[in-house]
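INFO  loader      accepted 1 record
INFO  loader      residues=221
INFO  predictor   begin
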Amino acid sequence: MRVQETQQDLRSLSATLRREGHLRHFRRGQALFTEGDRAERVFLIDRGWVMISCMSAEGREIMLGLRGSGDIIGELSTLDGEARSATALPVADVDAIVASGSVLTQALEHPAAARELIGVLATRLRDADRKRLQFATLDTLGRVAERLLELSERFGQPSADGVAVEMPFSQEQLASWCGASREATVKALAALRSLKCISTGRQSLVIHDMDALSGHAQRRP
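INFO  predictor   done
INFO  writer      dumping tokens
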């Protein structure tokens, strides 16, 4: 059994990308790929944060999400052959494993790798459905609270005053991620500060009352 488990580990998608790809360093602002590009490579983030965004018809940058260590990106265009639907931009220096699209398609011949990718796609589909529901039912305060909770769950670190979270993007980008104007997002952050839920600093915040923040996001216990 142990031998079988080891063989499955070696055939997992992440392990295959690490074995067949190469490590590359991307500076802040240096795109891993750009919306409209033809897909030739897939990426496994080894260190750092990558912002996924696209441009609206009016030329406004819309932030779709953040990806961090262990996340695979660029896989959809590799699978369907379509142009990139978004841009992947480091918000700080990033190290990523870069592999050709053929590595991904060949890896999927193994059940362990196929299951791993199905899990990634299922998680993102659920997240997209959840965000559509939030946009339909939550006001700006609720959506901002939800995004802060998401950041805390993925990137938060315990601190003496609560959970410390880096904010390596602008208020404009946070607003687009929340589907709101910058002005409304700034007001929502100010309201959360006045309620003692959070405190903010330069590109950082501390969540002091996780339960209250969850309440504003209308999360069930």
